[in-house]
Each structure stands twice: as C-alpha cells, then as structure tokens.
Design goal:
By secondary structure, the chain is mostly helical. 62% of the residues lie in helices and 12% in strands. A 3-stranded antiparallel beta sheet has the order 1-3-2. Helix 1 crosses helix 5. The longest helix is centred in the N-terminal third of the chain and has 19 residues. The radius of gyration is 19 Å and the shape is elongated. The mean pLDDT is 85.
C-alpha cells in the first residue's frame, strides 16, 4: 500500500528565496495598494468600525466600502466580529506587520535604506 505525502521544498538559493518571499508578499501589497483600501486601513487603525461607520467617515456607499473590505479580509489584514445585526471590522496588526517588516528588510539591504531605517 503506497502512501503519498505532500512535501513543500524550501528554496535553496537566495534568488529562489527572494522569489518565494515576493510571491507571498505581493497579494498583501496588492490589497493595500488602492488608496481607498489604504484609507479604510488608516481609519481602522484608529478604532474598530462597522461598515456604516466607515461609510459615514469616507462618504462612500455601503456597497463600495464592502467591495474594498473584501480584499483586506481575504488577505487577513482585517478581522470581523459580529455585533448585533452589524459586523465590526478591526485591523489585524499582526498581518499588517508582515509586509511592513518585509519592506523594511528590503530597504535595509542598501546603504541608503540602512540610513533611512536607522535614523530617528
């Protein structure tokens, strides 16, 4: 009886590792790349909010706010907590920290980036 085992091989070279990191980081950055989604993230950084509160704060329609929250949810950048008939959206700082740390690491590999990352 044969048993199959799924095994993910780790990249062995620096180039392969960089490609794997880029593939993992790209969807998170794509979710954050839209100015409206970034605005929603900044509002959620202030405090958790319902879609209604986000529509009031942005002037966008409920449909448009929900549309922009979807990719943020899909990437784990926001979490949802049911509250009565509404859902409260919160920023997931752990998920948001991953792309920030990755970009800081990339920046710190250059002399200019080291100065920018290390100066107050």
């Amino acid at each position: 009886m044969a048993t199959s085992i799924d095994v993910a091989l780790l990249p062995t070279s620096g180039a392969e590792r960089a490609r794997a990191d880029a593939e993992q980081l790209a969807p998170l950055l794509k979710a954050l790349a839209d100015p409206t989604r970034l605005h929603l993230v900044m509002l959620l950084a202030q405090e958790p909010r319902t879609v209604r509160e986000l529509t009031d704060a942005t002037g966008l329609t409920q449909t448009l706010v929900s549309h922009h929250l979807a990719p943020l949810r899909d990437q784990g950048l926001v979490t949802i907590t049911p509250r009565g008939r509404a859902n409260v959206y919160s920023l997931c700082c752990e998920a948001l920290g991953a792309p920030v740390r990755a970009l800081a690491t990339v920046a710190s590999t250059t002399p200019a980036g080291q100065q920018a990352c290390c100066t107050p």
